């Protein structure tokens, strides 16, 4: 990765950590899930309003390290307005990126700004921080309409 790209990615993460997008409650939500990463102390709640199989609104609340917060901000920005199938495809692409070897090329066309988190591949302990928001999104999409569920994400 070039130094310029590395710097751009660091700035994206810093920016989303400092000014998280889509942060807060969502009154009209019809999907919810909670997740935690006990190894780091990251806590997250994801709220969605899914209309006709499309993510009309998404917000998150929580606290934790810069990677977990930036990841949640980037994740909500990426899936807002997407169909659930498109969101699940991004979920799989993100999983593939963060669990790949550091030398594997990143699919920047598919991942867009999410590629900024690709650097966690070099730090296995931080992969869970980056993954937390996506696993919580996945749990929320799997939950039934109007039913609140809690997903305790234990160490994998
Ligand atoms: Zn963390």
Give a written overview of the molecule.
The protein has a three-stranded antiparallel beta sheet, with helices on one face. Helix 2 packs parallel to helix 5. With about 160 residues, the chain is α+β, with helices and mostly antiparallel strands. It is globular. A hairpin with a 4-residue loop joins strand 1 and strand 2. The protein has one domain: Sufe protein. Chain: A. It contains five helices and three strands; from the N terminus they run H-E-E-E-H-H-H-H. The C terminus is likely disordered. Zinc ion binds next to helix 2.
Number of domains: 1
Q: Report the sheet-strand fraction.
A: 15-25%
Structural class by helix and strand composition:
alpha+beta
In the CATH hierarchy, what is the architecture at level 2?
Answer: Alpha-Beta Complex
Principal-axes geometry comes out as globular
* Element order: H for helix, E for strand: HEEEHHHH
Distance between the termini: 29 Å
